[in-house]
Structures are given as C-alpha cells and as structure tokens.
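Listing S7. Sequence submitted for prediction.
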Amino acid sequence: MRRIAALLSLLVCVSVPVHGQDGDLYFSVSPAEHSVVEGLPVRLRCEAQPSSHVRYSWKIDGQPLAPSPRRHQVEGDLYITRVNRILDSGNFVCVATHEETGYSIESSPAKIDVQWVSEASVQLQQPKLPSAIRVDSEVELRCHVDGSGDMKYEWFKNTMSVARSDRVDIKKKKLHIHRAVPEDSGMYTCLAKNEAGSSSVTESYPLIVSGNETATIKVVPRNLIAKRGEPATLHCVFEDADEVQWFFKEIGPLEPDEERMIFENGTLTIHAADQRDQGFYSCHGIRDETTVSYTVELQIAYLLNFSMAAFEPKRPTQLAIVGEDQEFQISCLEPLGLPPPKVYWRDPTGHIISDTGPVRVQDNTLIIARARMGEDDGNYTCVAENLAGETDISVQIVISTPPSIISSPESLSVMEGDSVTLTCSYSGMEPPVTHVHWLKDGTQLRESGGPTRYRVTDNHGNVTLHFKSVDLSDKGHYMCQVFTTGFPSLLSDPAVLTVEEKLKFSPQPVNKRLELGSTAKVSCKAQGTTNPTVKWVKEDEDEEFPKHVQDINGTLHFNGVLEEDKGRYTCIASNAQGSINHTISIDVVIAPKFTVQPQNPTEAIEGYPVMLHCAAEGDPKPTIQWDKDSRMNNLDNPRFEVLSNGSLYIKEVYLSDEGKYGCTAGNSGGLKREEVQLNVKAGDNYRADMDLEATDDGTMMTKTVTITLSAAAGYMVLVVGLMLYCRYRRRRRKQQYLQEQTEEKMENGDVQEEQTELKETGNKVNSTNKKKENRDSHNKSDGADTAHSQSSNQSKKSKSNYDKIAVSRSNLKELKPLGRGEFGEIYSTKYQVDSDKESLVMVKSLTNTKDETALQEFKRHLDLVHKLNHENVVKLIGLCREKEPDYMILEYTDWGDLKQFLIASRKDSNSSPTHETKQPRAPQLSVAQILSLSNQAAKGLKHLADNRLVHKDIAARNCLIASNLTIKISLPCMTKEPYQQEYTKHRNQVIPLRWLPYEAVYEDEYSTKSDVYSFSCLVWEMFHQGELPFNKLNDESVLAQLKTQTLTWKPHKAAPPALQDLQAQCWANDPRERPTFDEVVSKIGEIVVDSCL
C-alpha cells in the first residue's frame, strides 16, 4: 500500500505544470537533414514556442558554433553561405533559451550531407615505369579522383572521347589498353561526375608507346597559361620524325608567319598571345605513313575585377562599423581568374597582414580580435593577383563607442493646430555610425500624414521633432531612441504630448439652394474641449424665426420653404473656450415644372412638318434641351428647330427621324425630363429622303475612294523612303567599319576587355580606347560603363546649374496622387506659366532628405533628364526648391504610364464585381504597334546611352504612352505604391529584381548592357499586356535561379522571329554578348520595314 501511495503522489507531482520546465518551451520547427553541394548555401531552420522572450544559439558536435563570415543567424535560423565539407561536418543542434527563466532546450541533431568532387588526374598503373611501355605492351591508366557518392567516369585522348573496343577496356576508374600500338600515344585525361557535378582536370598524362618504325616524342608539350600580349612557347621534340606539324583547332598544318614561329626542333612560339590564340594545339610527329599526335591547351590569363559581392558576409557599402573591444571578421572571396588568383590583405599603412596577432588573416578572412580605437580603424585592402595582374577592393573600418543620452524631451500641453517642437540631446558619433529614431507610444514614428506633417532634424547631437500643425491624433508618449552600430540602443525618458481640441466646425456649413415649398434641413455641427452650444441667426432679422422654421440643436428645419426664407444665415458655436461663427447664403429656387408636355406617342407623315410641344417654368428660368434616342447634339440638321417656348419643330419629316425624343428642362433647382415616341408613316410618292441619301452615298463613295488612294500613295512613298534610308544607313556603317579596321591596323592598338586591365600596359590600352571612343559612337553603349562612372560627372553640377531650371510652385495646379517612391509622393497636375497653355506634368517630391542614398539617387534622376532632348525621353520642366519638399517637374502624357494602359487593354480587366457598369476597355495593341513602340523606346534609350547615362529601371511602369501611340522613357520609379510588388529589397536596396540581369543584382554592376537586358523585358511586357514576369515564382526563387543562371526568358510567340532572336541576344548572361542600343535600333528598324513590306 505504501508503494502505491508513493507512486500516486509521484504521478500527481509530474502532472502539475512548472514554469520553466519542458512543457512550457518546445520546438515548433526543428533543424532538418540537408544534402548540399559544396560551396552552395544552406539554411537550418529553428523555431520554439512560445516565441516571446526566447534567445537562440547553435552548437556543432556539442561545442558552441564559432563565429564565421560564412555563417550568420537570423532569429533562430542558421544560414551558411558556402558549405565546407570539413568545417561543416558534424551534428548541428539548435539551443532555445527562455530569457526570463533561463531554462533552455536543445533540438535533435541535424547533419549536412555535403556532396563534393575533387580534381582529377591520370596515373600509370601498368607497367610501373613509362620507359617500359613498348609496342604490344599491356597498358593500364587509373583516374585519381575523390568525391562523395557514386561516380561515373569518362576518358579522353587528345580531347576526343575514348570508346570501348577489342583492344580498349574501361572499368570504372581504369582504362586498359591491350597490345599497345604507337597510334595509342597521346594526352589522356579523365572526367569524373557525381551529384556535385564534374571534376576539374589538373594535368593530362602523356602516353608514349615507342616503336622502331614510328616517331618517338622526347619533349612532350604541356598545357600553357600565357599572359596576354607576351610570347607563348609550346615545346614538342620528336626523335626519328620525318616531319613535325602543328594544328590549331584541327586546322593546319600551321605555317610560320608574322604572328608565330615554328622552329626546326618542332617548338611553336606565338609572338604576342591574344584571345584569338586560345584553344587546343596538336603536335604531330610523322614518319613514313604513321602519325603520332599530342594535344595541349593554350589559355590566356585573365582576372575579373572585384565587386561588392566579394565580401562575406554581404555588405551594402564598403563601410564597416565595429564596436570598441568587439571582434570583427570579414572574408574576401577570390574573383574569377586564370590561373586562380592568390588573395592577401593590406592594413591601412599598406603592409601585408600576417596570420598571427590581434589583427590577422586566416583563409582570406580578416580578423580583428578586439577593435581598438585609434589603432585598428582605417582602410583595409583585399588584393587578388595572378599572371594577368592584380585587382583590389577596400573596406573602411570605423570603431564605434557607446552613446549616451544627455537630455530627454519634456512633456507639453498644446492647442490643436499649434506648432510643437520636442527636443532631446545625446552624445555619440556622426551618422551613419549613430542615428536617432523617435518613438510614439513605443512604435517608431513614420511619415504617414503627408510631406509637411512633421520634420526630424539632427544637429550635432541635438535632435528635434517639429510639428507644423499638431493634430488630435498626435497626442501620446514620445521617446527618442539612439542607435550606435555595435552597441544596444538607448531610450530617453518619455514625454507626454497632450493636445487640447480647439473649438471648430465639423464640418463647416456651406451655401444651400432650397426648393420652394419643400421640407429641408440645414445643419451646423461644432466640437471642442467641451460640447459647444450651436445656434443660427439670420441677418437683418429678429432672433425669432418664423413658425415654419425651427432651430433644433444647430439644425435649421424648414417645413415648407417660402420665398422670403432666402438670405444670409450665421451659425454661432460657443463654449468655455470662446465662440466662433460662420455665415452662409440660402437661396430659394423653383425647380423646373412642365407647363406643356409632349403628346406621347406623336404620329407624323413622311414629307410633312411636325411639332413636338414642350414648355417649362421655374426660377431661375429653366433651359430646355432636346435629344434623340438619349444622344445629345444629334439634332443639328437644319430641318430641326427648337422654338423660344421650348417646342421642337421638324420642317420635313424623314422615315429615319422615327425614334424616342427627350425634352430635358433644368435650372439650379434640378432637372425634369419627359420622353415622347415619334412614329413616322411613309408618304405617297415621296422620294426626297431617298434621293438625298443616294446623293449622300455617292458623295461619300467619292470621298472614300479619294482618301483610300491618297493613303495608299502615301504608304508607298513611306515604304520606298524607308528602304532607301536603310540601304543608305547600311552602306554608311559598312564604310565606317572598314575605315575603323584600317585605322586600327595603322595604330596597332588593342581594345581593352572587361575582364581585367593589366597594370603594366594599362596606359597604352586606355589611350587606345579613348581614340576609339572619339570616333565610334557604339562605344558609348559599351557594357563596361558602370552606373557610378556615368553619373559621377553629371552629379558634380553646381547649385547655379539647378538655379537655372528653378520654377515657381505657384505655376502648379491641384496635385493628384499617382503613387509613392523611395523619395516621396508622386503626383500629376497641370502646369502653366503666366498666360501660356496648360500642360500635363508629373511631380516627384523629395521628402526623405535624411537618407543620403535617396538624396544621391534623386540627384541622379535629376541629372539623367537634365539637358536631355529627345522626343522619346521625358523632358525636365524644372525644379521647385522654394520650400520643402523639393519638387522635380517632368513631362507627362494624356494616357499615363504604359503599365496601366497594358493592363486596361486586357479582356478581363473589367471583371471586378465592384463595378456595376463596365468602363471602356483600352484598345489592344497590334504586333505592328508594339514594334513601333519598341522602336521608339530603343531610340530614347540610345539617346541615354549616347550621353553615357544608365537608367537602371526600364519597365512598362516607367514609360509613358500618349493617345497618338508615342512612347517616352520616364523615371517615376513608384517603388511603394502602386508597384511595390514589382520591387524587391535585396542587400538593403530596393531593386526591380525581375527586370535585372545577374551582374546588376549580385555585383551591383549597372551599365548600358544591363539596360539592354531590361529593354528586352519591356518588349516582353508589351506582348504579354503588362503581366508580371515569372509571376509563378516568388522573389527568393527568382534570386536563386538568377544566381545559378537558370532563369530562362521566352519571347512571345506572336513576336516576329527576328525580334525573338534579338530579345534572346539582349537576355544573354554575358553582358559582352548583348547588342548595343545602336544595334538594337538598327535591327528593330529593319524588322519594322520588313513587317511593313
């Protein structure tokens, strides 16, 4: 019994929940097993419930996970950017700790199965020594490679695949040659494949089968990496050879010329190696009728320049802020190059950093163990070098110190509508190291009330929050929050802002028109700190109203409006705060009333006159309008006359006059309408109507034939003119090309490539490029011009240049919102100077002046359209800088942005159930019209490229279309509304992801060639009626496919084949393979001409 009692008591204790025990904290998402190829990213997920007050950490094989640039944690999830089979092998465990109780739980372990494959090399297995290989020997070669999982092997001899035969046997890693013959000699390589991909080849194995009747090689050629512009020598020496021949890409034999030399011993020397010399070279030793060959590869050394993508973890800028006494790590990923470059770091003094000490480098990772103020800050440079030269990229390290709050804002009590300023001061570093946010009721204050609701300024540690006109919704608790990178944020003491409601009308009463004899109400409502008393007073009258008028709590009730009720009435509201009044006018009108109504139906006989009676009275006197079949202004024929009393007189009735006629009488008191059906009977022997119609038909036919013939003649003239123009342009470009070739041969200069610039020959290359740029407009569209270099010169405009385009804000009419962008609101309005004609414009406001990046981008947009003058690019009207916010005034069109037009042209665009009546659908564009718009857009973008400018955001939403089907390249960039779904936040930048190529997204390399890519996306949008590209993929999937270069664009089937080919070229992964805008305009022009023909 005692045992049972003890067991029951134990069960009771277990069943009672205890805070901080296992029942309170559990994993809703645990890390799972993953299979990943080495070098690719992986994410281990971890989430615990309840999620509040939970801190996460990770362990590997029971030890806390060491900090690394490759690994970072976002909430509970662990991200590994590049999986390493050695460093990331082990059991990963997620630890969730409750911050209040200190209780922690650990997840079940998860492993990462890393798929990998090493380099492959060929080894001789049989015989043991190469010198023992003779004719009829048994030869066995082994492929030496390591990797995960099952592997498949493939063998090559002189780059040609080796197949099984009666003498050749292949078993997995081994290649066995039975009864070897001299023709088996050559360069052998093997390729291994598994789930991680294919192995890279380090070196080929030269198999030498000696024979008495064949040439025997003594010096075997080897693969060679040569520096561009320098000599490249391939050795090949045969013994007992009648002749030694060289072949390049199976073309030959090669002969000595001014570019290469072949010596008597068989050695091949290329005087100045270049890209055109890259490829496979075969050395053939010939004796009698037997040939022995060995194939090697010549490659030109190159080195790609560093970009921001080289840093790990990824950084938005080259500025790194580290808290004092804290650890800092940043890796520098080696750029692509041949041979693979070596990477090292230099400190701010220019010395190479060693692998020991408080500041050291390990595996290309810069480590600062404990950041020291005044010692460890400065510019650190990562350098990569190989045979082609060197490239570098710097990161500026700033050591931050903790901030402190000097004074907190003070509580205030103000009246609604007053201006208010809250102030707090702090001690800290300059932005962006230290910055301040204001909190209202614990939530970060955001601009939601328009550009002038409030303004935040930070003047060397004195931060102010200024309300120009405080509102009732602004009352609450305010704190300033100080952020310094590397340290926890600080909060000031809260200040309470109390807003007293002022006495005001809500809403303010307005003038009224009351119908004579009707029952009406005129309201006046007011509000204040205390409920006000509201009453009405009529001017020049006693305080007492007539009996049929009552004032009930501020509402005038008219029980039967009389003529003498018209006049001026004043509403007075009063409370303890004081009194306010407002005066309105009440007018008494008499609504239209028919005194004579048309007879319905009315009969008429063809050829005779008829009168449709209609007369009305009212005050003011009503006007009368007649219409037929509910269509206005269709009774302007001389046969119809509206008499002074309002009746409609038809002098001579035709059969076509039959229908429903409406008489509408209207004045300020309202509208009244009566309809009458006119029935017309055919008259005996009456032919006037038919004769007139026949005459009209004859005249119309003559006009139609004349217009048709004129249009045909004009069309033929246009086609012939286009053909002549295209021929002239092709001839001129051919002559220009031939002239350039001649000049290049005379100059003997090389064109600089995008991969790298050899520092030894950089000056020569640059000077050659400058000469080419001066004589070739195509180079203005070269893909090597980045957005930063293109905008730098433009952004150096002085204030005086901006003053020249200054316009007054008074020239703008009412602003109508279009959307919101990174800088602020975007509006449409009308613009008029003095008595000039009004023009439609777009207004871009700059409200985010604290963001330096946004400010620079606003200036870039301004510089982009400043001084540009092209019919297919929007014009800059001016800049309003009288007061904040600044306004950029741009040209606008009557049909607005192309995206909305394309969406409106869809067949399903009016299917919304909220619309009772469908709006007219925009006309759907034909293929010919899309070609015309594409041609115009390309011309506008060519103009940008010719001025060395980059757009960065080419899409239908950023193009304007007019009713005459002309297109203009614009820059609204409405990233927040209404096109926020078309933009993605990537690396702290808002980008149009689905319209950008790889180099723009992952290398921040914007150029004219990236604009060419986006232009092809714009053409795709026009064919797909504004559809979102890759609408079935989320942003993460698009980013992943773009990174692996598996994102595939498909032109529309309705596009002409030539245009589809052009789009495919524009979407090339390599920017150098994309055409320039010169070529795009030329090719689309040819497509337009062909489609016309």
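Caption to Listing S7: primary sequence and predicted structure tokens for the chain studied. The domain at 303-400 is CATH 2.60.40.10 (Immunoglobulin-like). The longest strand covers residues 578-596.
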